[in-house]
Amino acid sequence: MSHPLDRQPTAVLALGDLLDTRPSESYLAGHDPRAANIPLEELAVRVHELPARRASLRVYDDPPVRARWARSRLRARGFEDVAVVEASDRTAWIEGPSRVRLWSPHEWLVQALPLIEDSPTGQRRALDLACGTGRDAVWLAMQGWNVDAWDVLPDALERAADRGRRCGVSIQTRVVDLEPDALGMVSGEYDLVVGFNYLHRPLFEWIQRAVRPGGWLVYETFVEPQRIVFGKPRRRQFVLQPGELKERFAFWDIVRYAEGPSGPRRIAAGIVARSSRKPCP
User: Fold this and answer.
1) DSSP string, 23-75
2) Does the reported pTM lie above 0.70?
């Protein structure tokens, strides 16, 4: 029997930019190996499987008018760089389910994961706080982590679970209002806690209890002057002050920290930190 530390990613889906909007039966019968499939008829309910709106997308369908309809619907949702393309060399097509995804997890998480060592238990138990539609949770599961995904919105969690199924992994979803009273007294249950674009300051203390000694935190959210420069988030309570995140985890081993511009219209603070190997008193 293999040890958890030796476990390889359970699903490998290449990142692509080609969207095939034909019906599923047509796609399964043969498709460009670089294409992901979201049928035109399902596009409105599977937008969580699309990339960021600033990304480039190529769309294929047969007949081509369906691809043009897809392009129109994507542009209406804010995707500006969308091109209709013709079929590639069909002799290179393959049958079966997609081996490609269009979406990506947060870049801070991708950069952090190689820095993270497994805990002494090797259980690889992770928690994604305020997970939304689950792009980070599912990506972690694809890397071999056992992931709990919490959010206050049931419909977002349904999409997160659906994303996982389509990627060949499972995550444990739970409807949770991320307030300390609702979270309860948790101590040392997780090897990794991740969180993005969510700030409730009392949660920092809970995180320090939830992570096992020797476990990890990967976290990134908005920091001033984000609100001043871009106007969102509107409330000051939802934006970190300069240096605040680093100070909150000053007694952890901070492996990586960054504060400043981190993308288009985004100023953030991010941390990758390891908890003390000794349990807190």
Assistant:
1) -HHHHHH-B-TTEEE--GGGGGG-GGGS--TTS-EEEE-SSHHHHHHHHHHHH
2) yes
